[in-house]
Amino acid sequence: MGFRKKNKSPPVLSHEFVIQNHADMVSCVAMIILLGLMFEVSAKFAIMFITVQYNVTLTPDDRPEPSNVYQYGPKDIATVFFYLLITIILHALIQEYILDKINRRLHLSKTKHSKFNESGQLAAFYLASFIWGCSILTSEEFVTNPTFLWEGYPHSHMVFQAKFFYICQIAYWLHTLPELYFQKVRKEDIPRQLYYICLYLFHITGAYILNLHRLGLVLLVPHYLVELLFHASRLFYFSDENKQKGFTLWALLFVIARLLTLTLSVLTFGFGLSRIDNQGFSLAEGNFNVLTVRMTCLSAICLTQAWMMWKFINFQLKKWREQSQIQASKKKAVSPKVKTSKKELSRGGSANGVMKPDDKTSPRARKTKTS
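Structure (tokenized):
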């Protein structure tokens, strides 16, 4: 892990050396790109990495002042690469100065330690993305007019915040792939993480390229809220296993988010885009409003939501079985004590060594009988 002070340094360019110092190496690459701005020869290439490309100035009829909007293109790959480097550095900073310090206090096992780091990183990302996405949506017309999801398609022009949001989203999920190596993720956890990383990249990149960034943003914001609640609840659970109320609220919001995603997707692809006048396929205009593309996008979203619900139901069933087993074991542990206490009460008509008054074997009864 970068930014750590080690007593023994591993061999240069070994696996352990790269893992311990990867953030420092990435920082050097980012600094080289930034230093390129100082020279006229390299400034043109450095700007392509740092700033958002494809700026277009439009003058709408209803507005006297021109507005700056952005399109996408192949130069965005360079921008994504630079912010991927920045994300790796921020990942190392959060890990070193926040999560590792908390881990030392909690004394977690290796399995919980890995899950705690994963939830800590994702909770920070979901929180920042949720706030950022809400700020973009408040400036749009979705709250008052949901038809803005498909009206005016293709939405080939984006405001700066929307395009930068998608650049950072793609950069973050791409950076999680090398982090599987840097964080020494266990082999049994790699397939599970690869599944959701690839799903995020597939859907976010698809919405960006197909000019469906409005729909993608609207679907990402509630989804990130649900995921934020889950990982925050898991962090509290690792600190105190009695704190499980957050999972109940997460389960409720998870189902609502899935229904909301399906509803908006069917409304956009099934009714909105199919009824607008601008139908056709054109790469130059960024228009992908044809039946094949619409059905492919809707099928991908529906299959993803079905897979997520399947995983959710299996998780809840597994949790319910574990709780039922714990309760059954507690009942078995209590029942033998109850049986032994009943035997003691029925033994000899006396309990706890105290003789009852009507006990015929007591000395007082024998004395009266002899008299």
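Confidence is low (pLDDT under 50) at residues 349-357. The beta strands are 55-58, 67-70, 280-282, 287-289.
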